[in-house]
Amino acid sequence: MTAQIRLGADIGGTFTDIALEAEGALFSTKVLTNYAAPEQAILDGMDIVLSQAGLGYADLDILIHGTTLATNALIERRGARTAFVTTEGFRDVIEMRTESRFDQHDLNLLLPTPLVPREDRFAVAGRIDARGQELQPLDEAALQALAGRIAAGGYAAVAIGFIHSYLNPAHEQRARQIIAAKVGLPISISSEVSPQMREFERFNTVCANAYVRPRMADYLGRLQTRLQEKGAGCPVFMIHSGGGLISVETASEFPVRLIESGPAGGAIFAADVAQRFGLDKVVSYDMGGTTAKICLIEDFSPKTARSFEVARTTRFAKGSGMPISIPVIEMIEIGAGGGSIAWVDAMGRIQTGPESAGSEPGPACYQRGGERPAITDADLVLGKLDAENFAGGAIRLSTGKAQAAIARDVGERLSLAPQAAAFGICEVVDENMANAARVHAVENGKNISENLMVAFGGAAPLHAARLCEKLGIDRCLIPPGAGVGSAIGFLKAPFGYEALASRIIGLSTFDPQAVNALVEDLKVTAEGFVRQGAAGRILCEITAFMRYRGQGWEIPVPLPVRPFTAGDAGLIRQSFLDAYARFFGRAIDGLSGLEIEIVTLSVKASDERPAPESVSLTPGSRTIMPPQMREVFDPSATRMLPTGIIARDSLRPGDRVSGPVVVVERETSTVATAPFDVVMQSDGSLLLLRKDIAR
Amino acid sequence: MTDQTREIHMQVMWNRLISVVEEQAMTLLRTAFSTSVREAGDLSAGVFDPEGRMLAQAITGTPGHVNTMAEAVLHFIDEIGRENMFPGDTYVTNDPWKGTGHLHDITMVSPSFKGDRLVGFFACTAHVVDVGGRGFGADGKSVYEEGIQIPIMKFAERGVVNADLVRLLRANVRESNQVVGDFYSLAACNDVGHNRLIAMMEEIGLDTLDDLGDFIFTRTRAATLERIAGLPRGGWTNTLMTDGYDRPVRLVATVETRDGTVNVDFTGSDPQSRYGINVPIIYTKAYACYAMKCVVAPDIPNNWASLEPFTVSSPVNILNAERPAPVSLRHVFGHLVPDLVLGALAQALPGRILAEGSGALWNIHMSVRPLAQQSGQRAEILMFNSGGMGARPGLDGLSATAFPSGVMTMPIEATEHTGPVVIWRKELRPDSGGDGEYRGGLGQVIEIEPAPGHEFDFSAMFDRIGYAPRGREGGKDGAPGLAALDDGTRLKPKGWQHVPAGRRLVLHLPGGGGYGDPARRDAMARAEDLLKGYVTGGEK
């Protein structure tokens, strides 16, 4: 490892989590996210963990940061007012989307509104063709005039997206030059942000980048200044959506790469747990204050993709959000967190989220001015939380305020007692998460119940057991530090970067020199990013995204990391055919001379990570009686049950406690519902194990 | 097993079955060659019981395919015969009357065997880029001119592909590699569904799908019948005028509710046309059922039991065309059937039914070639485009959104990679949404030019040029469509026409009708329309 004292900081919608690793010891804390000055919460948290560890700011070797600020700005539509400059004739690409309905039968369907409204989208003549040649020159005079309008228009950011710019960025670059001469705003161009074909996805991605950029750049600048004032001289790196690390400068320019960065850290955390226990099928479940994230992890690696959809608006339906085309750890995220607001719709159905109380004002029980009931309020009313010991005692919770808010907004409207209303709220949010998990597994062709769940994030251990009941999952691990899982995950993240280039290369005319030169370019780019933070050995993976000519979907084909020769065309062809048969059952035969082509080449570089120490799962060797009992609502029994209360740090490896039981710790509580027992593992993880599974 | 756990168990398996067909559809989407499938999602996939009754369909897919495929499987069982079915078989047809209404749609059915027991069928349908003949268009005088006909036969027996069929196909279609590739994709997607189904049955310990099928059909039938019982009793008739090929065509539907069924009768519609705009009844029925379902039971999953209570009847006419009528563009009137049926339902359910919309997709099939004496590229290019949807009671109509079809448009960057055309414009069409308390969705404007050194012929498949989408409950009509060249030359709504080098094809797609009295439209909504340029304020 290149750095001995590493600090991870994860800003979520509600909490900011800090994890410090020093000489093998781990220190962590949670503080409330500060919307006005997110960096202040980081410093507050750092003060706490540094003093726990007896260290100062100057002792840090590296700081790794991730944040959901960018994602939340998109979900909650709190970004900069953006001007979008695009090719004449294509003003409405981000509004017309795919011209389809994501629900076939719902005649009252609402489609998501575009990030940049029509009055802020401006079209300019100039056209690149499908071969990357200029078909019509850029109308520079019109751009000059437009730059003046933008300067006077009260905008905070500019996005530029032209047709076929992924093949030839000249017009976008020139347009940036012209506008930059008159407008002192950050300008994002689609050929840099997302050089992939398909105009709707690329334009939306560049608009999203521009939309969140001023906020993110300001914030990152302030963070660096404040850290320097505190005497921290260490480099700061950002975790990106693909799960690797990039510099703050890169992140400020391409903040769209930070979307899902916090969750990416969580996925790495879960992958590390999976590897430690040797579990090849894991579903990670990360529930914080604002959202819940679910990710499939096979063979210790999170699934990755080249594009994804964020901010789904309607029942998490595919197509109801917006596409973002960047390399990403593939997961599903929904507006279900401890702070998600519960409400009753026109048909008398309880709904939860996606609106979140966040940390300000927070759920009603925080007593910080929140009036509307949140999931945390319902958890408190059901007895799952200890009012005196929430977030390590950092916040005193008021059961009375929680009850009052639930009664007013949900209970009275449906004639339900507060406790029954609280149960309804929790069932709705748990069902929503279970549906999202099923949908995600289905989209990946997987069966969710075959997985072991790894649950983390402040709210997940409160809901994991019920979620497992709904999904038919019978084992769930809650690792130590679960309350700050993403921040710990940051510490495990490799310095990694994936560089992509779209070039169509037919195998029948395979030119090894040209391919070697392209791969070398990508390698230099990717390794350059990695070298910003890693001194040791760098591992490279080369992937060709390939298809039969005429198809629209490419499959990833791993290639050997060495210079190619003319004879390699046969090897690449065979690798493609094998991969094709693996994906789709059988390769296509009987086609005379059907060309096989590479569409995109990718080089992923990362530094070498040490493998974690391996441990094995234990079903427990002795049964422990909890020292205390309290009434807690059990969802499958649908009533309050006497429930054991036991401190996590009082459990020794092999201790098994019969559910229902609540295991309390500083940052969160783990609820084992009646169908589950809880077993302490040798690494400090808690295992929720269905009672009907043999010991 | 207690009733409660059985209930949950069955629900979970039902969900699993839907995930199996969803994966089947995704496979087709990812392996297909033609842009209409891979970019537009013009496909469907489903799983059936051994009797040929549809158990579940993929959410990905389009109603015209799904509801026709649901009937097609019965024809396959009849014609192949169970005694001739073996593991590893795949059957194929493009018969318009036994498949999905025109030759361009290839339907494949594969039996699913667990051991040597037939446990069900997988079926899928996709639109391929070419089937020979005159190409995708309305000009054929009979189905014989419209392309190669593949009667129900084996594409593969015990895993071995029928090489003679592939050779015959190859000799008869324009883009043979793409078409043959799509045949393989269709077969592969059924294989994926089969493998997933068998894995699921083994894991759960099922030998047959009988219990699950009973559960699905019982639940679905009960829910559907309950909704039908909530409809008023009676009969309601609606008439819709359309452009036709060279003269207007009248469509008439009568919706009649009875005990536990709803029938739609098409008596009164015009006779069969000489041109390829006729519709086999299997396709008419698909869209009539779809419209009914959207209103009566939108939340009930689609399967045999949810479709069974809806029936159609018709004498032979343009919506019940008989072989060998030309049917290539059957989708145009097929897509207008929902507006036709909804107009009748609006009389039964006042205040609940949206206004008329653009309806039929504005598909363009282009045959591009280099100018004489010049080098260049030949290509067949298909684009799907949508006008505006009608305004809903309480909501503005959706702009440039396909309804009733479920397909997506293709990215223009992908279209331009397919062949030498330049798409200069594809954006919303201001002032095209019908005024009303709720405004109709906007249509769109499209401009296409052959790439330098090329020209193209295109097959027009447009409607709502002569007759605008009508408003409802006092709402104004949407703007009718327009097809022209950029020099002002008006073009016909249907048939093959020419676009010379240097000229642009200009299409104005219709806007949706408005809903409710325009005087009641909210002032804020009007201000927003002006700000965004949805309405330019030049008139009114």
Explained architecture:
The complex is a heterodimer of chains A (695) and B (540). In chain A, strand 1 (5-11) and strand 2 form a beta hairpin. By secondary structure, chain A is of the alpha/beta class. Among the domains of chain A are: 5-74 and 238-252, Nucleotidyltransferase, domain 5 (2-Layer Sandwich), CATH 3.30.420.40; 75-216; 496-607, Dna Ligase, domain 1 (2-Layer Sandwich), CATH 3.30.1490; 622-690, no CATH class. The mean pLDDT of chain A is 88. Chain A is built from 16 helices and 36 strands. In chain A, strands 13, 14, 15, 20, 23, 24, 29, 32, 35 and 36 form a 10-stranded mixed beta sheet that branches. A 6-stranded mixed beta sheet of chain A has the order 3-2-1-4-11-12, sandwiched between helices. Chain B is of the alpha+beta class and 540 residues long. Chain B has 3 domains: 3-208, no CATH class; 230-350, no CATH class; 354-540, no CATH class. In chain B, 31% of the residues lie in helices and 22% in strands. Chain B has helices spanning 3-31, 35-38, 63-80, 163-172, 176-204, 210-229, 281-296, 304-307, 330-348, 412-418, 523-532; strands spanning 43-48, 54-57, 90-93, 105-114, 117-127, 153-157, 160-161, 234-242, 249-257, 262-265, 310-313, 363-370, 379-383, 421-429, 443-450, 454-461, 482-485, 494-499, 505-508. In chain B, the strands form 4 sheets. A 7-stranded antiparallel beta sheet of chain B has the order 2-1-5-4-3-6-7, sandwiched between helices. In chain B, helix 1 (3-31) runs antiparallel to helix 5 (176-204) and helix 7 (281-296) packs parallel to helix 9. Chain B starts with a helix and ends in an 8-residue tail after the last helix. Mean pLDDT of chain B is 91; it is low at 1-5. At the A-B interface, helix 3 and helix 12 of A face helix 1, helix 5, helix 7, helix 10 and strand 14 of B.
